[in-house]
Amino acid sequence: MKLWPFSKAESHTRLGKESFIFLFSTVVSLELFLYFFLSPSTVPYWVTMVVIDFIFYIVGDFFIFQFIDRPLITLMNRVKRTSLTLKPSKRAGLKGELDEILREVDKLADTLSREREGLLETYNEYRSIVESLEEGIIMTKDDGEILMMNSGAEKIFSTHRSEWKSKKIKDFFRFYGIIFDKAKKVVSTKRVKKRLVIREITMSLRNKFATLYILEDVTEISNLENALNRAENLALLGKMTASVAHEIKTPIASLKLSVQLLKRQILANDPELSETLDVLDKEVRRLEERSKGFLEFSNPHYDLKPINIVDVVMESVKLARIRARDKNVEINFKCSQQSIPILGDTNALNSAFLNVLVNGMDACEGNNGRIIVNVERNLKSVNLIFSDNGVGISPDDVDYIFEPFFSLKTGGTGLGMSIVKRVITSHGGKIEVKSKQKSGTVVRIHVPIFGDENG
């Protein structure tokens, strides 16, 4: 409702309305006082009073609007704008105390603007720090509802924070199969196959309790610790093996010599005793080979020189083909280059390649087997690929084929592939095995090239 009909304002301010009502009430009270004491009864008197009241209404409302309502409305609108934008407003049209009020509001807005910029800068810094951490961070409410998750947690669990927003932390732990140990610190996860260290911190957030979960991925550290323990055990085992092999080396040599002398002394007319000595000689030789294998495994020595690895592989294939004929196994060799230089030990590499080929022949025996040896040169390395169509290796056994004394063959020592891996790694290379039961096995060996990379 507009008390001032000529104004653009929808209504007066509360102070303007109260001022106008007070002023108009005063005038009406004065008129009532004159009426009771003077007792006028003429019509001109009442007409005059009505005209005076109308004039008073117009003039009073005009002055109240001009000097009270409009300045207050202007001040209120500019304060609202300042509160929204935190920018100084125009003070034109305001004077006196109202101008001072608006000036103080502008100072307050300027202070709040600086504080907001500081808070935003601090927030962005903390957010950047939290997002750059490799550790996963998850914050929950007191009822377990997930409030936030950083990129570290997304990386650890291969997920996105939007998938878990407002969900329960217990559902998160259950989904990833997180199992706490006795100390409730180191946990394992079934779904992502990792080991984590979880720290739980209780904090106050907006006058309510919240929980901060800090998750550190210690999978690599745990693997390194296991590898270190395994290396220490292998080192101890190697020393014991070397000691035992060294102790039995001399008795084996004496036993071998004695058997050979006995065979020479036995006459041809005693075939039964001669056959027994043949068996004994065979077993002594096998024992000698085992002891040599133990010594090679425990105390390897490689004489690295510039060599042509193509010649080494061809020599290994040539030797393997002699045995392959008896096993009905075909060996094919493929190489597009005649010379690829590496820094290596010919005898050690030859022995390693022969070991791989023998394992392939044993896997293909009696199955019209085929082994393909492919030599490929890259920019910085040479790749040797040994593929066979044998019985293959079960997934449970593939991870253990390089472990010492692990063998899938009856009577095997389990040192062959361990020695192969040691030879390849000593040459700065890598070896990997992929196999599938009834589909064959592929052994990939990568050795760095020596000399001019461009040939």
Feature tags:
11 helices, five-stranded mixed β-sheet, 455 residues, Helix Hairpins, alpha+beta, 4 domains, six-stranded antiparallel β-sheet, Beta-Lactamase
Rg, Cα atoms, Å? 48 Å
Low-confidence stretches: 6-10
N→C terminal distance: 97 Å
In total, the number of strands is 13
Q: What gross morphology would you assign?
A: rod-shaped
Q: So, the CATH homologous superfamily of the largest domain? A: Histidine kinase-like ATPase, C-terminal domain
Helical fraction equals 40-55%
Mean pLDDT: 77
CATH class of the largest domain: Alpha Beta
CATH architecture heading of the largest domain: 2-Layer Sandwich
Strand order of the largest sheet: 2-1-6-5-4-3
| Relative strand content | 15-25%
Number of domains: 4
- The helix/strand order is HHHEEHHEEEEHHEHEEHEEHHEE
Structural class by helix and strand composition: alpha+beta
Largest beta-sheet details: 6 strands, antiparallel
The number of distinct helices, counting runs of at least 4 residues, comes to 11
Tell me the CATH topology of the largest domain: Heat Shock Protein 90
Give a written overview of the molecule.
- Helix 6 packs antiparallel against helix 7 (271-298).
- This protein has 11 helices and 13 strands.
- It starts with 13 loop residues before the first helix and ends in a 7-residue tail after the last strand.
- The protein has helices at 14-38, 43-85, 96-132, 151-157, 169-175, 219-265, 271-298, 309-326, 346-364, 395-398, 416-426, and strands at 136-141, 146-149, 178-180, 186-189, 194-205, 208-217, 305-308, 330-335, 341-344, 370-377, 381-388, 430-436, 440-448.
- Strands 2-1-6-5-4-3 form a 6-stranded antiparallel beta sheet. It has a 5-stranded mixed beta sheet with strand order 8-10-11-13-12, with helices on one face. The protein has a two-stranded antiparallel sheet with strand order 7-9.
- It folds into 4 domains: 14-97, no CATH class; 133-217, PAS domain (Beta-Lactamase, 2-Layer Sandwich); 232-298, Helix Hairpins, CATH 1.10.287; 305-448, Histidine kinase-like ATPase, C-terminal domain (Heat Shock Protein 90).
- Residues 6-10 have low confidence and may be disordered.
